[in-house]
Amino acid sequence: MKLFNHVQIKVKDLDSSQKFYDAIMEVLGYPTVLEIDKKVIGYGTDVHDMFEICQADKKAVPSGPVHVAFNASSMEVVDDFYRTAIQQGAQCNGAPGFCPEYEEGYYAAFVIDLDGHNIEAVYKVK
Questions:
Q1: Alpha carbon 20 to chain centroid distance?
Q2: Is there a domain that residue 1 lies in?
Q3: Alpha-carbon 8 to chain mean position
Q4: Is this structure's pTM higher than 0.85?
Q5: What is the 3-state secondary structure (H, E, C) of 92-106?
């Protein structure tokens, strides 16, 4: 069984966030698997294994900063994720490289997205 069915964050501006996440998810190989009336966009392998962004409103305020780490298929994809995210307006929170403090072979990059979330791409080198 998978750990999550889906994880959702509330964003201030869905259009801007969608542009950002469309770009980085394309690099990571996670397509859009759900779109509901310009309110929710889901990326992943299917609707029961996805990351969602949702337009915040008066009833559902923007999510506080979270850390989300996405699996990447190679070190090159981690590098491409980082470059793409920075081009889309993210701030650097850790350039691509090995993170031996986490575990041997842990290769990752970290960015702060448009809403202040710490977004990571990680590849485990075997």
A1: 9
A2: no
A3: 11
A4: yes
A5: EEEEEEECCCCCCCE
